[in-house]
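Worked example (supplementary).
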Amino acid sequence: MTTLAPDELPIAQRNAARRRLQLLLAPGLGWLVVFFVIPLIIVLLYSFAAPGPTGQVIWTFSFDNYVTLFGKDLYFNAYTRSLVIGLQTTVLCLLIGYPLALHVVLADPKWRTVLLFLVLIPFWTNFLVRTYAWMLILSNNGIINGLLELLGFAKQLLYPSEGAVLVGLVYGNLPFMVLPLYASLSRFDFTLLEAGSDLGGNGWWRFWHIMFPLTLPGIVAGSVLVFIPTVGQFVVSDLLGGAKVDMLGNLLQRLFTRSNPPNWPLGSALALVFMFFLTFIVILYFRNTTEDER
Amino acid sequence: MIDFSVSNRTVGGERHTVGRRVLGAHAWLTYIFLYAPIVVLVLFSFTKDSFGVRWTGFTFDWYVRLFNDTRMMRAAGNTLWVALVTTIVATVMGTLMAIAMERYRFRGRGGLDALLYLPIVIPEIVMALALLAFFSFSFGIIESITGVTLRMNIWTVIMSHVAFCISFVVVVVRASLKGFDMRLEEAAADLGADPRTIFWRVTLPLIMPGVIGGALLAFTLSLDDFIISFFTVGPGTNLLPVEVYGRVKRAVTPAINAISTLMLVLSMLLIFLSQFVQRRANR
Amino acid sequence: MKGIYRGLLALLVFGLLAACGATPAAEEAPASNEATGETSTNDGVDRSKLSKELYVYNWTDYIDPTILDDFEAEYGVKVILDNYDANEDMIAKVRAGGSGYDIAAPSDYAVETMWREGLLQEIDQSLLPNLKHIEPSLLNKYFDEGNKYSVPYMYGITGIAYNKSIITGTPDSWSLIMDAASASQYKGQFSVLDDEREVPGAALRYLGYSLNETSPEAMQKVQELLIAQKEFVAAYNSSDVNRKLASGEYVMAQAWSGQAMQARNGLGDEFAGNPDIAFFIPKEGGMIWMDNMVILKDSPNAYTAHVFINYLSRPEVAAKNTDYIGYLTPNKDAIELLDPTVRALYAEGFAPDAEVVKRLEWAVRNETTAVFSDVWTAVKGE
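After joint prediction of all chains, the assembly is encoded as:
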């Protein structure tokens, strides 16, 4: 061990701390600046440009795209449907994912890893193929309708429908909820619950007043990871909704690569408004739910 | 040496067994939900029905065909490679950043906080086209300065995947750093451990569930990414999601189910392997 | 916890092993213009000018893979094929520059977009003697007069495919899927294409307009018609219509002729056909479109690209390719070389005869037709 004169220590420590901070931040931050911030700036510039007759980007500077965006009520159906479906998906994932993560954390240590991996394994098959498998299960001659018939019920039109989209989205996003919850719950000190019961609280009280607040960071992280991709996706709503359930992601996909001609500037403006709106909400959410319990 | 023991998890007495049973039942149901399509998918990779929607008898033909399909096999290999490199790079960088964000107060932390959420918030198609523009732009600059012509290839895909995976790792690792008992590190420091030792022996083991969760998330995201891969890959490099997307557009054949089953078996094999190694190490 | 580290290590090693075999293959040496040996044959191709590789960017499953092998066997040029699923995706990559491809296959309007933006090389027709086999009525189209930039590859028409065993009689109108009485009868059992020009286009023809009509009144009527239709449609589907018709999931669909033909004939060894599938162009008229081979501006292997395009235009190669793909060949001398069952279907209405041709229309897509995006968004958002 090196010896330091006592009065040198704070400065030396401070410098060491600063060096450590730089070391921790530099690689990731550098990467993000080059491969994310710069591309994002390009998108920002697009959003002030104009679409060319063949779909290229013409460099001008105007707020036309933003005006169009807020002036056109054409898009509001997609906005509201996206928010509603996104919220439904998030709540369902939380209701399914929390008890599951708890079960994994409480399991015998030698099974814990296996149980966690079991949540993820389905997601190492191809996303589209999984979604197609749901189509087989839900389709008119599919497994569920086969079971219904066998039990003497009438066949139901399960797919394509908004309900089928919801099933597909919950299915596809569950691990994004379970992983942060697992990380959070595995740090939870379960003896606190015992203390709670010594204080006479019942099961629900102990969950609500002890476990829930202490695992809130995981809940928040999971909700964000589920909600956002849900709103921006388009493949599930195309396949399980028969391309009839139009969400924000579908709108963006059309603006960028399916319209003739495509309109990248308008698409960029829409994407940016959407992103900053969501980031704002997310940060507010994090601030209010996680900072005060520190 | 490295052991994260959560002590005494089986709390309380009989009152808890009911709750535990309910939890167990819920877990079973959820696993059934998770595996129902997988069972269908695996089953229909063996069906004789070429539509892949009915069970008309067992056949191994689709697998034979798959193994002879060099395009598909190469795509699977490329995809695994991309996912692996992405996971390693993104997990290391993301974990370091998460520690910095949770442990230090510094100027610009709030802004960085926002920046870190953007790759999660950005719709994939926007990031894909932005990266496409970025690569073409920067390759143009490089060419005009050095005269070297660069092209997109498998590495541009990896760079792009890392860029969106870092944030996911940061979010998950930060969740496990919150409520982390700092006194453990202080205690280690009091005992004379230097920062490096503290990191490897105390901090990392304690946040390991978060790190692993983040790594798994990155792996899963990269393995399945279609849009960003499509726009950032160069000519002649097949990636599985791109290949499958194209083929599925025409028809989901049992052969497509077969490649998915293979990827599944491969991942299961990894788990068993890791468990096996673990058991042996513990003995 | 040790176990998890080990597990990750195992994962790493395993993945590396799995990936090793694959990565080097994907990064083959870039194409060089070295001579391939032989130089003396009588087909007019200077083999010393051929490159070793040719990068082709084509629609998914839009070429018989054995043709690529045959081409390599004959000329020693390895064709590296990548796929896309929309003109706009392909153009985005080519527009960014340095895409690395030599050849692409844009549809009609996309050819115009590409040459206008300077993304294409002019074609040297003296290197394409097989151009003489192309049906003259499919040359000199609006998107490329004089065929300076493009060579017809495949074309198709858009009409209605239906199952004869369920829809009896001889339907001949778009009213089958557009009229509420008819559409409601088959609720949830039919699809229309997921395309902002095809569906409003069909509605326009049904209402008596041109496909390219953009007046606000017409757009308003189209929008109302399509919104009324939406609740009866099973899905907006452009991709696996062929299978769903063949398997009986759909009893009818707005479809491209090739999809209908695949539903009728089956697709290679992937699925069996359904003999009850028929196809017609409604009396109100339908759409015709064509995909074309083009050479990209920054292609370093233009000579080889010409040789490849010329090869694809040989009648026997075009016929083989058409048998595989199921769309219509613009190669007039290939038609008699087609598989007899395919030729029979051509006669049955899967290809246009002189009468049908008169009611086919090309769909222009440019700044004036941007209004279709709004109509489509309104319909989709409903």
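Two points are worth noting when inspecting this output. Chain C has two domains: 47-155+290-340, 156-289+351-381. The CA atoms of residues 102 and 300 of chain C lie 7 Å apart.
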